[in-house]
């Protein structure tokens, strides 16, 4: 690994915790950020490498931006920043709940972009580094009852694509990860049959970690589900709407 330091948000559980362990085991000093300090302390004890717990609530965008900027200066420059923290919930247009919608936007949109924006000035100045956004295959096409979540991930994917145009020529790598269904806390309440191609957490972490190391620009997986949704997105609007209402 060329990276010496990394910041990973949402590191108290699931993908974030797995990625923290993945990179710590490869000699990267990982700043593991999340709200649950006790879980971060247990992560530190579990890691085969250096993990520094960092209590942070990314839903406060201004505070997140300032904390990441400060950390970049304190540690001598972050080489890798992974905006992983996210939340999901149903937001049916028939029974819209603004509090739920706002929470998803605060975490998935504001929190993710504040994390990445906080790291970019230092990377631009140094002309090196890698930022990673954990989006979702939900960014590919809108699904019934998941307007806020799909919209938030579509925003993140589009944001990263635009930033890639700006900073790619400077030597900064911008990676978009678009995973499918994974066994995590976010999916634990759903029926397995409602989540096609459901992946084990360790498998997903390994795929994502390797994609980051390879400096993939966009990594969508599993291939089967990603392909199906890309085909659905390319259908004429009436056909796409009918397909998503039936299978979404």
Question: Short summary of the structure?
Answer:
This protein has 248 residues and is an alpha/beta fold.
Fill in the keyword field for this structure:
15% strand; Rossmann fold; 8 helices; 49% helix
The overall average pLDDT, rounded, is 95
- Can you tell me the CATH class? Alpha Beta
Fill in the CATH topology.
Rossmann fold
Helix content: 40-55%
What topology, given as strand order, has the largest sheet? 3-2-1-4-5-6-7
* Helix-strand makeup class: alpha/beta
CATH superfamily: NAD(P)-binding Rossmann-like Domain
**Domain tally:** 1
**Based on DSSP secondary structure assignment, what is the total number of beta strands?**
7
Please describe the biggest sheet, giving its number of strands, its sense, and whether it closes into a barrel: 7 strands, parallel
Tally of alpha and pi helices? 8
* Shape by Cα distribution: globular
Cα-atom Rg, whole angstroms? 18 Å
- The CATH architecture category equals 3-Layer(aba) Sandwich
Cα(first) to Cα(last) distance is: 39 Å
Question: Which series of helices and strands comes N to C?
Answer: EHEHEHEHEHEHEHH
Assess the beta-strand content as a share of residues. Answer: 15-25%
Structure, explained:
The chain has a single domain (5-247), classed as NAD(P)-binding Rossmann-like Domain (Rossmann fold, 3-Layer(aba) Sandwich), CATH 3.40.50. The protein has a seven-stranded parallel sheet, sandwiched between helices. Strand 1, helix 1 (14-24) and strand 2 form a beta-alpha-beta unit. The model has no long low-confidence stretch (mean pLDDT 95). Helix 1 (14-24) crosses helix 6 and helix 3 (61-74) packs parallel to helix 4. Helix content is 49%, strand content 15%. It is built from eight helices and seven strands; from the N terminus they run E-H-E-H-E-H-E-H-E-H-E-H-E-H-H. The chain has helices at residues 14-24, 37-46, 61-74, 98-126, 147-167, 201-213, 223-234, 237-247; strands at residues 5-9, 29-34, 51-55, 80-83, 129-134, 172-179, 218-221. By secondary structure, the chain is of the alpha/beta class.
């Amino acid at each position: 690994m060329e990276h010496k330091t990394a910041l990973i948000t949402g590191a108290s559980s699931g993908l974030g915790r797995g990625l923290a362990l993945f990179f710590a085991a490869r000699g990267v000093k990982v700043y593991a950020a999340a709200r649950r300090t006790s879980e971060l302390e247990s992560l530190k004890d579990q890691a085969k490498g250096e993990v520094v717990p960092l209590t942070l609530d990314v839903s406060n965008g201004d505070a997140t931006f300032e904390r990441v900027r400060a950390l970049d200066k304190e540690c001598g420059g972050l080489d890798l920043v992974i905006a992983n923290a996210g939340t999901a919930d149903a937001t049916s247009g028939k029974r819209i709940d603004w509090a739920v919608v706002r929470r998803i936007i605060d975490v998935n949109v504001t929190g993710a972009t504040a994390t990445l924006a906080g790291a970019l000035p230092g990377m631009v100045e140094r002309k090196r580094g890698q930022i990673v956004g954990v989006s979702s295959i939900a960014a590919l096409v809108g699904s019934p009852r998941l307007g806020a979540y799909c919209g938030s991930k579509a925003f993140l994917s589009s944001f990263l694509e635009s930033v890639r145009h700006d900073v790619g020529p400077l030597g900064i790598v911008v990676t978009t990860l678009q995973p499918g269904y994974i066994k995590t806390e976010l999916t634990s309440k759903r029926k397995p049959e409602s989540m096609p191609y459901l992946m084990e957490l360790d498998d997903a972490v390994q795929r994502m970690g390797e994609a980051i190391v390879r400096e993939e620009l966009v990594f969508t997986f599993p291939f089967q589900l990603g392909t199906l949704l890309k085909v659905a997105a390319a259908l004429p609007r009436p056909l796409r709407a009918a397909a998503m209402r039936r299978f979404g």
